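Q: What would this chain look like folded?
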Amino acid sequence: MQGAILNVNGIITDLDRRQFAAWQQVAMYEYGMGLPGKLAGDFKGLSRPAALDRVLAHFNDTADEDRRQELLETQDRFYGQVLAKLDEDDLVPGIKRLLVALYDHYVKLAINDPVGHGDEIAKRLKLDEYIDVVGTADDPAAPYQALLAQMDVPATGCIALVTNQADLQSAAAARLTTIGVGDADQLAAADYQVRQVGDLRYQMIEKVWEDTHEDK
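A: My prediction, written as structure tokens:
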């Protein structure tokens, strides 16, 4: 096993909560009232355009492409302000131990953050010394292939830790060994599943990788 690609959201820290906080600020800024906290679950795992659709629907509003772009830029600005408050207390339990173990075994590490704030997040969480490659928003159609190329690691030598079905499908299409973290039904197609990051150990991940390649 030469490399590992980790989703930022759900593996490193909880970005769904930060994204929703930014959308609440957008709602207050644009409509003079925030989004109720009970809606947070409806935004979980949504892309930013899909989340914008939810906001517009909540306020019975519509937007042409120019205004949608303006709203997305406003949300990104508020999101940056939310991220500025991140610190090590916001790490998902168990992830720092896992990153150190992978790093100590000379596994190259990349983080996948399609929104494009990965560098800032890694620095604020004090993980940048362990991370070799940070994904960007430049290649949303094939993020895993782009990260593999930057890591200079073959797909067959890499594992992906994913938290949603879209990333699972993308990682599998790139021929990575996949470990799903979270919803067992949503991640049923993964090579291996765990309930939470704290259940992961280096030896377990290495064994999963070895098992997926023993007949290849």
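The radius of gyration is 18 Å.
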